[in-house]
């Protein structure tokens, strides 16, 4: 029997004494070591503050960033987009309810952040000449900057945190989970928490506190029933929302939920963002595109949900029409950068993107500022309404902020918070006692209902009563259930520190659930499409409700609301005209009278507390109302014990472990970690930021597993001379070490100095035995500008297709049109397609003569599309017009694209005929090409003919083109 077990059950740990706490001190405390938190820590340290970074998992792997980052969703890259356009589009996507001063910070600082991340070593997709490959994914704005190798972002950040200068200023404590922010005199002064492995009590004294704990991802229950099978990283349980609330900070937009499209039965996004540039898109079961909305929004989700529920459902991500090259490239991204389990999931069903489109569904509800707008209220420097308390990342309300916004606001928070020095007063004893009770209470009742059961019950209520479509009646029932669940939570049992962590999380989820229900009840209109669709208030009411809905804890401990008019915009948006003005204090929101078999004349039990105001028809107490029961407020609070009557906990399909990043993910360097004592030595050494001489013996070790681990350590720590050492390792006798060195060089491409000494080993590797290493060598030589035309021409004769494709990209980077013409005759279609694309960048129409006659449909299509950038003069325009009659739709689509650059005669007439093509992608290409000619009346007339096209993209792009 393992140690610590009695009679087959684990003995409950002892409750540590309140005064046995380990007390830590710092200028700036950062809670949560994900995207925003790591950046906040780095910036605060750079500004001279002593920083303590507390993470309940392990910073190396934790948070939303640890997996699935395949692109920056919202980069305003100069030359590709304008900050003001971005601000206007986010304002529209958020139905007018934004504080533009915050969104503008992301718009204006996002690009510098991209460059800072790049200097750290994060790789963004670039074209052959080094320009950012920004993509237009939605119909409005070009903001998506792909990161096909985004799986390494967290690794890169961790490397920064462990740089010697940073380690002197930033103390990282993994597995410590704060549960409450401590306040004194109305300002933040620290936090209280515990160690999730040892269970010891921890208190922190801090000058300022930055909350960066991510979304509330475990709010709704996924359709699969798995507690941790959420869209969001499941360790993000709304901790920061609850901590901010209890510290007295205002939260805002909590009724604007996060709901996302995702793969049916699998907790991953379908990734239309990734698939779109490859030609994938969402369709209904008839194969029709159906999304009308021009940007990611609740409106888009409403259309999505309606389509799923309609006769036209289910909905699919369509990939089966794509050529093999695109499918395999997508598989590489989706099954590595996105989620490794994804390939296993599809394979388990016997599905393949070549044969089955991917069935999609909608996610459970959550709270998230980054994908939606539900968060802690912050100003344009991440300051909350509590002095010295900051919030950044997904838990802060800066709508549609995503990853780059989390970095920007982490940076802003770190810079501002660095002005504070460690708090020297007494920590508030009553708050410490309450936090201690909150953490350790389940140990007093080890045989009580376990966390999975209570959490399952709570989140089932969220699905039943809070998920849209919402109604006053269902939301009122929700409020009653959540109030009753205080009793279930009080009875919950735990024995281990890990279980204590999960129990504390259930408390956060309950708080978030009540906030979500009450906020939804308070906003008596519908807005943000599906996010806040109320069946009893179906209209959007800009007169009463072009307001933020702020929520805070009142002095008596209840949730109270204020409607705050949207401030006049910095960037005007035609559809909305906010005028600002005084906030409307709404007070507490009371549940409606429901769940009776008829009209009830007297208020339900609990609302009759002395001083409780009458419940208005809107369910919101009138100005200044302050009645109701204590605790969670509302009608149901005064009914302790009621939970027992409906204690359905007991069936817990949610108890299983979920897929995705979770607390407790182990560490380890490469395969073989732990198999040799030398590797353990190496791992210990890695913690101390070794220099290259210290690593050399391991790079030369006789055991290839040790050499491989040494390559991984080099990649993680990047001491001076790393490039040279990795390039040398490309000639290692062991193929796995060579492959690891190649992968590492690719990973570090943005941070390796282009030292001339690198050229010789890289050039030698171009002739090495493994294709994967040869292709890495060509790529690195191109990116570091260390190669030349002769070297790349050699690579064009390589037997491996992947190396020749890299050679084509390299030849584009040196403007070698002659050699690209040679590549256009390659035996491989993939190389010929790449050559046609390349000639579109550096060639002339005449250079495309061969690919335009190619026997392969996709090569001809690529060559035609390339004419759109080289220009499409006679006789190429005539060839394009003729190609509109080709039997292959890909060729017809390419031909329509070519006519973008042709003279209006004959382009417009030919494109008009393309608008009646049987294939939606040809019609779409026709509409996009006609946009280039939209100054002409005949082009506009042609565009008007597709107003009723069955394809949503065709309709919408035509509408946008004629709007000008
Ligand atoms: C599946 C998915 C895919 C995405 N893809 C993209 C994309 O491709 N492009 C893009 O721009 N954006 C994307 N996003 C959004 C982006 O990842 C987030 O907006 C961003 O990472 C949020 O950063 P954050 O710091 O707020 O949260 P996180 O990075 O999740 O960090 C929160 C951290 O806080 C820790 N924590 C939580 N509670 C506590 C506590 N009580 N004590 C201590 N630590 C705690 C967590 O363990 C975690 O490490 C995606 C999000 C998801 C979920």
Automatic annotation (TrEMBL):
Keywords from the UniProt entry: Flavoprotein, Oxidoreductase
Entry superkingdom: Bacteria
GO molecular function term, any single one: electron transfer activity
A GO term from the CC aspect: plasma membrane
Record-annotated Fumarate reductase/succinate dehydrogenase flavoprotein-like C-terminal domain positions: 457-571
GO BP annotation list: anaerobic respiration
Positions of the FAD-dependent oxidoreductase 2 FAD-binding domain: 27-398
Pfam families, alphabetized: FAD_binding_2, HEAT_2, Succ_DH_flav_C
InterPro entries listed in its UniProt record: ARM-like (IPR011989), ARM-type_fold (IPR016024), FAD-dep_OxRdtase_2_FAD-bd (IPR003953), FAD/NAD-bd_sf (IPR036188), Fum_R/Succ_DH_flav-like_C_sf (IPR037099), Fum_Rdtase/Succ_DH_flav-like_C (IPR015939), PBS_lyase_HEAT (IPR004155), SdhA/FrdA/AprA (IPR030664)
SUPFAM superfamilies tied to this protein: ARM repeat (SSF48371), FAD/NAD(P)-binding domain (SSF51905), Succinate dehydrogenase/fumarate reductase flavoprotein C-terminal domain (SSF46977)
NCBIfam families: PRK08275.1, PRK13800.1
PANTHER family from the UniProt entry: BLR3196 PROTEIN (PTHR11632:SF73), SUCCINATE DEHYDROGENASE 2 FLAVOPROTEIN SUBUNIT (PTHR11632)
Protein name as catalogued: Putative oxidoreductase
Organism this protein belongs to: Streptomyces lydicamycinicus
Lineage of the organism: Bacteria, Bacillati, Actinomycetota, Actinomycetes, Kitasatosporales
């Amino acid at each position: 029997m393992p140690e610590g077990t009695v009679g087959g059950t684990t003995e409950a740990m002892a409750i540590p004494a309140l005064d046995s706490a380990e007390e830590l001190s710092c200028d700036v405390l950062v809670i949560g070591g994900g995207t925003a938190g790591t950046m906040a820590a780095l910036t605060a340290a750079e500004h001279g503050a002593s920083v303590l970074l507390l993470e309940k998992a392990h910073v190396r792997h934790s948070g939303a960033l640890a997996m699935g980052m395949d692109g920056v969703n919202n980069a305003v890259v100069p030359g590709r987009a304008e900050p003001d356009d971005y601000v206007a589009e986010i304002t529209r996507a958020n139905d007018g309810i934004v504080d533009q001063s915050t969104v503008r910070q992301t718009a204006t600082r996002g690009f510098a952040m991209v460059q800072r991340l790049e200097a750290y070593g994060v790789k963004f997709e670039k074209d052959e000449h080094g320009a950012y490959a920004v993509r237009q994914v939605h119909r409005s704005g070009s903001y998506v900057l792909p990161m096909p190798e985004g799986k390494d972002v967290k690794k890169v950040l961790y490397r920064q945190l462990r740089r010697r200068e940073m380690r002197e200023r930033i103390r990282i404590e993994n597995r410590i989970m704060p549960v409450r922010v401590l306040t004194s005199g109305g300002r933040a002064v620290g936090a209280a928490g515990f160690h999730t492995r040892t269970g010891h009590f921890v208190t922190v004294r801090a000058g300022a506190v930055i909350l960066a704990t991510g979304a509330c991802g475990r709010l709704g229950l996924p359709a699969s029933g798995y507690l941790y099978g959420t869209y969001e990283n499941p360790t993000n349980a709304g901790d920061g929302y609850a901590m901010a609330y209890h510290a007295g900070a205002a939260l805002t937009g909590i009724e604007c939920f996060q709901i996302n499209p995702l793969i049916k039965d699998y907790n991953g996004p379908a990734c239309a963002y990734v698939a779109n540039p490859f030609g994938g898109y969402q369709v209904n079961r008839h194969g029709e595109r159906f999304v009308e909305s021009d940007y990611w929004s609740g409106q888009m989700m409403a259309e999505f949900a309606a389509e799923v529920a309609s006769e036209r459902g289910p909905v699919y991500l369509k990939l089966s029409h794509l050529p093999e090259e695109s499918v395999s490239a997508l598989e590489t991204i989706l099954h590595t950068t996105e989620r490794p389990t994804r390939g296993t999931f599809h394979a388990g069903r016997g599905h393949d993107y070549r044969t089955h489109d991917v069935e999609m569904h909608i996610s459970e509800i959550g709270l998230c500022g980054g994908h939606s707008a539900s968060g802690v209220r912050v100003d344009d420097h991440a300051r909350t309404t509590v002095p010295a308390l900051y919030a950044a990342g997904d838990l802060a309300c800066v709508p549609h902020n995503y990853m780059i916004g989390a970095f920007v606001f982490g940076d802003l928070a770190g810079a501002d918070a660095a002005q504070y020095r460690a708090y020297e007063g007494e920590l508030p004893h009553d708050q410490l006692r309450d936090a201690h009770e909150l953490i350790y209470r389940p140990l007093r009742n080890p045989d009580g209902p376990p966390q999975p059961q209570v959490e399952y019950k709570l989140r089932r209520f969220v699905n039943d009563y809070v998920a849209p479509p919402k109604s006053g009646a269902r939301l009122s029932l929700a409020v009653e259930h959540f109030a009753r669940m205080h009793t279930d939570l009080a009875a919950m049992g735990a024995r281990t520190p890990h279980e204590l962590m999960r129990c504390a999380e259930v408390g956060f989820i309950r708080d978030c659930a009540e906030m979500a229900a009450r906020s939804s009840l308070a906003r008596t209109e519908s807005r943000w499409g599906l996010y806040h669709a109320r069946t009893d208030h179906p209209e959007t009411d800009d007169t009463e409700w072009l307001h933020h809905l702020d929520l805070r804890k009142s002095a008596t401990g209840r949730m109270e609301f204020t409607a705050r008019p949207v401030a006049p915009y910095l960037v005007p948006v035609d559809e909305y005209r906010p005028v600002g003005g005084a906030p409307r204090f709404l007070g507490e929101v009371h549940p409606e009278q429901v769940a009776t078999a008829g009209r009830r004349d007297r208020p339900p039990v609990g609302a009759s507390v002395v001083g409780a105001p009458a419940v208005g028809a809107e369910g919101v107490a009138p100005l200044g109302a302050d009645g109701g029961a204590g605790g969670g407020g509302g009608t149901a609070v005064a009914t302790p014990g009621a939970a027992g009557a409906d204690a359905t906990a007991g069936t817990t399909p949610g108890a299983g472990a979920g897929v995705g990043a979770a607390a407790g993910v182990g560490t380890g360097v490469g395969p073989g970690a732990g198999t040799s004592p030398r590797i353990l030595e190496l791992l210990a050494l890695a913690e101390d930021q070794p220099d290259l001489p210290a690593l050399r013996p391991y790079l030369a070790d006789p055991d290839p597993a040790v050499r491989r681990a040494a390559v991984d350590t080099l990649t993680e720590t990047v001491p001076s001379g790393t490039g040279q050492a990795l390039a040398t390792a490309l000639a290692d006798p062991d193929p796995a070490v060579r492959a690891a060195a190649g992968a590492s060089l690719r990973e570090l491409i943005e941070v390796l100095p282009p030292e001339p000494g690198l050229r010789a080993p890289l050039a030698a590797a171009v002739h090495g035995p493994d294709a994967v290493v040869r292709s890495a060598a060509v790529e690195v030589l191109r990116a570091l500008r260390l190669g030349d035309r002769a070297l790349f021409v050699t690579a064009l004769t390589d037997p491996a297709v992947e190396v020749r494709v890299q050679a084509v990209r390299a030849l584009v980077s040196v403007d070698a049109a002659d050699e690209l013409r040679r590549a256009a005759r390659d035996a491989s279609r993939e190389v010929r397609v790449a050559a046609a694309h390349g000639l579109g960048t550096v060639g002339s129409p005449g250079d495309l003569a061969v690919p335009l006659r190619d026997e392969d449909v996709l090569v001809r299509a690529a060559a035609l599309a390339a004419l759109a950038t080289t220009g499409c003069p006679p006789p190429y325009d005539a060839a394009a017009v003729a190609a509109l009659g080709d039997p292959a739709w890909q060729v017809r689509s390419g031909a329509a694209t070519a006519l973008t650059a042709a003279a209006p005669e004959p382009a417009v007439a030919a494109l008009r005929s393309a608008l009646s093509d049987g294939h939606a992608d040809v019609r779409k290409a026709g509409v996009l090409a006609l946009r280039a000619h939209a100054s002409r009346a005949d082009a506009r007339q042609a565009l008007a003919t597709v107003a009723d096209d069955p394809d949503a993209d065709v309709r919408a792009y035509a509408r946008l083109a004629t709007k000008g």
